[in-house]
Amino acid sequence: MKIFDRRSTPLMVALLMALLAAACTGEGRQPMRIAIATFSHETCTFCPNPTGVEEWEFYGPPVRGEAVLNMGAYIQGFVGRAEEYGGVELVGILSPRNAKGGSSGSWITREAFDKYANGIADDLRQAGRLDGVYLALHGAMAVTGIPKPEAELVRRVRAAVGDIPIVVTLDLHANEDHELSDAADAVFIIKRYPHYDSTLQGERAARLMIRTIRGEYQPVMATRKPGVITPSVYQGTGVSPAMEIMERARRWENRINDVFVSVAFGFAYADVPDVGATVMVITNNDQELADRIAQDMSDYIWRVRETFAGKRLPRTEEGVRLAVAAARAGQTPVVIADHSDRTGNSTHILAELIRQGAANFCIATLADERAIQEIESRGDVGAAIAVDAGGWADQYAGDPVPIEGTLDYFGPYAQFEKVAVIRFGRNNRVIITPLLHQVTTTDIFEPLGIDFSEVEIVSLKS
Ligand SMILES: [Zn+2]
Questions:
Q1: How far apart are the CA of 172 and the centre of ligand 1, in A?
Q2: Which of the chain's termini has less CB crowding within 10 Å, N or C?
Q3: C-alpha of residue 41 to centroid of ligand 1, in Å
């Protein structure tokens, strides 16, 4: 009798493979399962338009599954490091997309917060066995009726998953306090502004998460509020004292193994109880050390508060005069950061540039949905156009500025279907977007037909 005939061979191969797979995995050596979700907003509570479900779903319904693993640099860092470890299964949990208007959005409605926070918790309950949860948050969410939304989100997640590690990453413009570190096991905050290290902090979160699940690390945290509120424009980590604060945090991390020291400078454009700077320290089961480092960092931030919060910046007339003088002296390009305009609709700088006779300037960008509609209804690319631009979003936005010029571009750009470029005056341009658009690179100019080498002064809402 033949043991292996043609019909029995596939069965034998399947049996052998099953045996081999069992031997490789071993009893009880299932892959580590880590859930990932993001729910991120920087809420300007002084801005006019609340952020409800409609705004959260403007770009589509929340994302789930594999797609979550591509949602932003923090998550990409986490995923990359987790994959290096191997034996880790990542589970994408319900995650709302970016809300319409981003940081120009005001108070998040209770309805929207409950929908997504409970959605995340419900999804986690249905995700099967989990070993950990990673939440990529921003930290400056403001919700009507919920004073500390990120802490509340983590409490709801905790109620769903029980006693497994919950690790959080935050932007440094986060307003948080001990409630978040009481609810989560570990919190990492980026150390650079501009935010070059989001991926890095995601990677560190993954490493700590996996070591904690394996029982190689036992995170304990200490949190301090130094009592210092600064506007974003003073917080660039290339200048003092923000640079020294972050350097002091890195020094602690380098001197003592397995210590993670984070500082959020906070987001000042929010009327919330935990506004302002926050220090958060993680140690490997050493509460005394965590407290000592957090206190040292907090004391240091308090000591440098005068140089940190007490800087003087030129007001509009003076700032524009300095910019025009620098451009005339050939120190181009000159960048005017219209940093406090959270609606993107204010016209103070545009009006002042015109008043002072500036040439070759570009406003990148002015948010004005109405102007876009008006241009669409009666403007042809290449033809003359007259429109009143900006100046209506709220009482801080200035007055609408009449612009008469040529429509150089009308069409899609980035996430927008309709963007307009008007050339006017002495080779000046205004780029009009329907919503706030924070320009952080020069990538915007070429697709809109603007030769950036000709631009002498560029004014950004950022
Ligand atoms: Zn930020």
A1: 6
A2: N
A3: 10
pLDDT over 70 (residue 357) = yes
CA of 168 to the centre of ligand 1 (A): 15
Listed in sequence order, the residues at least 6 apart from 149 whose beta carbon sits closer than 8 Å to its beta carbon are: 108, 113, 117, 141, 142, 143
d(CA 158, ligand 1 centre) in Å: 26
3-state class (DSSP) for residue 43: coil
For residue 324 the two structure tokens come to: 């025009």
Tell me the pLDDT band of 28, cut-offs 50, 70 and 90.
Answer: low
| E strand or H helix at 32 | strand 32-39
Per the CB < 8 A criterion, the answer to whether 403 and 424 are in contact is: yes
329 CA distance to ligand 1 middle (Å):
33
Q: Read off the tokens for 457.
A: 């002064």
Q: What percent of the chain is modeled with pLDDT above 70?
A: 94
Whether the predicted pLDDT of 110 surpasses 60: yes
What would the mean pLDDT of 247-253 be, rounded to a whole number? 98
| Residues shown for the chain | 462
Q: Output DSSP code: residue 451.
A: -
Helix axes 316-328, 348-355, angle to 10 degrees: 50
Distance 195 CA to ligand 1 centre (A): 7
One-letter amino acid for residue 406 of the chain: T
Antiparallel, parallel or unpaired: β 132-137 and 166-170: parallel
Ranges of H-type helices in 222-347: 242-255, 287-303, 305-309, 316-328
How many whole angstroms from 138 Cα to the centroid of ligand 1?
A: 8
Cα(70) to ligand 1 centroid in Å equals 19
Using the mean position of ligand 1's atoms as its centre, give its distance from the Cα of residue 231 in Å.
12
Q: Are 344 and 435 in contact (CB under 8 A)?
A: yes
C-alpha 254 to ligand 1 mean position (Å):
25
Asked whether residue 205 carries a pLDDT value surpassing 80, the answer given is yes
CA 107, 271, 282, 258 torsion-angle sign: positive
Strand partners, 457: 334, 361
